[in-house]
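User: I'm curious whether this sequence folds into something compact or stays loose and floppy. Could you predict its structure so I can see for myself?
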Amino acid sequence: MTITESNASKAPFWLKGDCPPWCQFTGDHKGDDYPDDRSHMGTDFSVDLTLEPASYGYPVSVEMGLYQHVTDAEPSIRFAGGSWKHAVSLTIAEARAIATDLLALCDEVAS
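Assistant: Here's the prediction. I'll summarize afterward.
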C-alpha cells in the first residue's frame, strides 16, 4: 500500500478519540507503537533536591508529569524520585491533596 497524505495523517487504530489538549504527542502516535507506549503524556517537571547527596555527580531530582494510557479512563500524575522506573501514579485528587498539604507545611514556616 502506498502511503498518501490522507492515510499518513490518519490516527492509529488503537486511538479511539482525540488526544487530550495537554498531550505532547498529538499527531505523533503511530499504529505500531508498542502497547505499553500507547499513551498520552503531558509536560514533565523536575525539581533538583539540594538536601540529597548527588548521584554520580548529578543532583537527585523529583520528576512529575501527566500521563494517561489509552486504556485508562482518567489521566494521572506520575511522580518519581530519581527514576521513572520507580514512579508512583497519583489521581488528580490525590495530587491536589498532596499539593495542598505541602503548601500548608510551607505556610507553617512562613508564619
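Summary: Residues 1-8 have pLDDT under 50 and may be disordered. The helical segments are 5-8, 92-110.
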